[in-house]
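Figure 2 data, in text form.
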Amino acid sequence: MKKRLLITGILTMLTISSYAELVTSSVYTGTITELPNPGTVIKKGSILVKFDDTPINAQIEALKADIEATKLLIANKKDDCDRVTKLIDKSAVSKNDYQDACYDYETAKVTLKMKEAELAKLESDKTCFTIVAPYDCKICKVFIMQNSGTDIGQEILEVERLN
């Protein structure tokens, strides 16, 4: 018995179909850069569909650079906080200056954690740019051309499960 297959980054079985399974784009709208031809046999774990990941790779690289800059900022803010901590004991700076310096240091640390969480999310999202075969299958139909764009929910290809 065959079932329809909806791709959401994780393969999910849905409604029963007549003879094959339908792979649709339900997570990402973008350009397909890798797509097999009808009749191709795909082994379990091999790529069925790959989307252009250039935009997300650029975001990841930019965020990594921003994280490195934030780490340098944290080091500077820590030095400032340490310096005013020593000076406040000697009454050489105001309490306001001390609080501001330490607040800036703590804020920079929180900013880093937020950027690292954003990076982790982007890297997780990137896994949705490649759809792999959940089992050995044969490509029955391809509904769109390679290097063309897709919309969410658009049919991409139909596969037949091989036993």
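Caption note: The chain is about 40% helix and 25% strand.
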